Structures are given as structure tokens and as C-alpha cells.
Amino acid sequence: MSKTTKAVLVIVSILLLSMSSSLYLQVQELEKKVGELEKNQENITNLDKNLLDNRLQESMKGVFKEFLVDFIYETVWKEFLHFSTIFESIDGYTVTVTGAGGVVVDPDGLLITPTGGGADPGTALLARAPNPSLGGSDRSIPYLSWKQPSAIRANFMISAVSNLLAYIVRGNDPTLGISFYGFKMDDDTLQGAVHDGTSETAIDLMTIAANTQYIVEAKYYPGDKIIFLVQNSSTKQMEELGVLNSGLMGIEDSDVDGFFAYYIDNQTTSTLIDMSSNFFEYIQKRDKY
User: Fold this and answer.
1) What percent of the chain has pLDDT over 90?
2) Positive or negative, the Cα torsion across 238, 182, 156, 77?
3) What single DSSP character describes residue 252?
4) If you ran DSSP here, which 8-state letter would residue 108 be given?
5) Distance between CA 282 and CA 171 in Å, rounded?
6) How many angstroms separate the CA atoms of 240 and 227, rounded?
7) How many CB atoms neighbour CB 165 within 10 A?
8) DSSP letter assigned to residue 239
9) In 3D, which of 207, 208, 197 has the Cα closest to residue 258?
10) Which of 114, 196, 201, 212 would bridge 101 by S-S if both were Cys, CB 3.0 to 4.6 A apart?
11) How far apart are CA 228 and CA 243, in angstroms?
């Protein structure tokens, strides 16, 4: 073999070795890039999965929310009786006044004045006892019952708190001796009260002041208890101030024809006393018995 041929073979070997090394490096670089690509693909897959999970969660939230809204709506509509008034009118209400007073609706709501100008003591009553049978003999209101849990909420303000007796009750005229529960104002003492058809039971809740608004709430649990709450004027939260566990009406009590009543008795000739209110609410689980 000539020297020239040997030289050529050496050069070719060097070139091949160089190309192999370069190719090896290129393969390694390619493998690295493929690995990065696979990792990126995995990240993209995880991102897509997270997006899918989020979309699924949002979709499920929407379905659950719609179900929950429908469930609450159907439950409230089918299972509960709810009534509220801001005393837009008292047409159709029972109004009874002794002395020179009156019961009217003014721009601020209901105004009950049992005496005129302080000249004569007297009483005033506003009661709601509608007759759904439209003149028939059945004077009970459908679904009203002492068998089911119920609650009332109202506000009131009284212009003077001496020589006073007043009520806000679920029931009828509190002087009739039939079943009711609610609130009693005996001079400047606010009480929680209940009547079982035979006698009244009351518990002191707090001292009240004249010309001050109070928001009150009573929760009735058949055969168990009545909880009395008053709104804290600072925190605006309803606070439990008393509970009555005795003197409750029987759940089979038939005195359910009266819905609710406001009553005030001015026991002095020297002071004009009035009671005002601009809302009353009632809720009860429907009676299906």
C-alpha cells in the first residue's frame, strides 16, 4: 500500500470518528429534547386535566345550586305557611275601641290610640281573623295550628310606659281567655306570654322605654317551649331573653281561628298613650294532620 493510500485511509478514519462522535452528541441532544417534549406534554396533559376538573366542578356547582334553589323553593312553598304585612291597609281587620281612641294607618304604619287627648281611659284592639269559608260555618283558617312549630316577628313603639297594658300576639284578642303566645307590655316591663285557654303565664324579659322602637320575635315549639328574642339595638342581632316551658296550649287546642292581634289598654286619664308598628311576620310549618 502506498504512502498516499495510507494517508487517505487515516484521514477517512479520522473523519468517520469525528462524524460518529458528532452523531452521538446529536442523538443525545435529540433524546434530551424528546424528554423535554414528553415532560412538557405531561405538563400540558395535567393542565388540561386541571382545566377539565375545574370546568366539571363549576358545572357540578351550577347543577347543585339549581337543585338546591329548587329544593328550597319547593320546601318553603309546600311545607310552610308564611305571612307578612307592613299594614298597607287594615280593611277587613277586626277593630274594637272603647273610649275615645282609634286604630288607623298613617305614613309610618299602624297607629293604635286607645284614648283621645288623655280625656278618657280606654282600650283599642286590632285583630286579624279572616274567614276563608266565605261566610260558611267553618271559621278556622286552613293550616293554622298549635300542632306545628311557628314564629312571629314584629316591631313596636309605645309613647308612654306607665299605666299601660299591651299585647302583640299570635292568636286573637288576648282578653278573650283563648290560646295565644307573644309579647306583653305591663307598664315598662316587656314580657313573654302564653295563654293555654285557661290561664296566662308570663316571664319578664326586659325594661322598655317610651318612644323607642323594639323588634321582637317569639318561636313556638308545640308541647315543648316558646323562645322570646329581642333585637340588640347596637349589634342588630336577635338575642334570646327568655324561655317558657310551662303553660303552653295543648296541640289539640281548637282555638286557632284568631291569626294575630295588637291590643293596648290605657289605664290613666292623664296621659295619651299610643302604640305603633310597621310590620308583622308569621311563619308556620303547614298542618297536614
Assistant:
1) 40
2) positive
3) T
4) T
5) 11
6) 7
7) 17
8) E
9) 197
10) 114
11) 6
CA–CA separation, 108 vs 233, rounded Å? 20
Place of cell 377539565: 52
59, pLDDT greater than 90: no
Q: Cα(242)–Cα(226) distance, rounded to whole angstroms?
A: 8
Strand-pair category, 189-195 with 180-186 = antiparallel
Distance of alpha carbon 140 from alpha carbon 154, whole angstroms: 23
β-bridge mates for residue 110, sequence order: 105, 277
pLDDT band at residue 64 under the 50/70/90 scheme:
low
Contacts of 233 (CB under 8 A, 6+ apart): none
Has residue 267 got a pLDDT over 90? no
Range with the lowest mean pLDDT among 5-14, 27-36, 56-65, 223-232? Answer: 5-14
**Single pTM value for the model:** 0.74
Alpha-helical runs (H) found in the chain: 3-79
Q: Which residue has the cell 299601660?
A: 164
- Which is nearest to 159 in space by CA: 188, 137, 197, 136? 188
User: Among positive and negative, which fits the CA dihedral 13, 19, 21, 24?
Assistant: negative
- The residue written with cell numbers 280606654 in the block is 122
Three-state DSSP class for residue 92: coil
DSSP 19-61: HHHHHHHHHHHHHHHHHHHHHHHHHHHHHHHHHHHHHHHHHHH
DSSP string for residues in 111-169: EEESSSTTSS-EEEEEEE---TTTTSS--PPTT--SSS-EEEEEEEEES--SSEEEEEE
Q: Give the span between the Cα atoms of 249 and 199, in whole angstroms.
A: 10
Q: How far apart are CA 172 and CA 180, in angstroms?
A: 7
Contact between 130 and 146 under an 8 Å Cβ cutoff? The reply is no
Could you tell me which residues are beta bridge partners of residue 83? 282
pLDDT, tens only, 193-203: 999 989 999 99
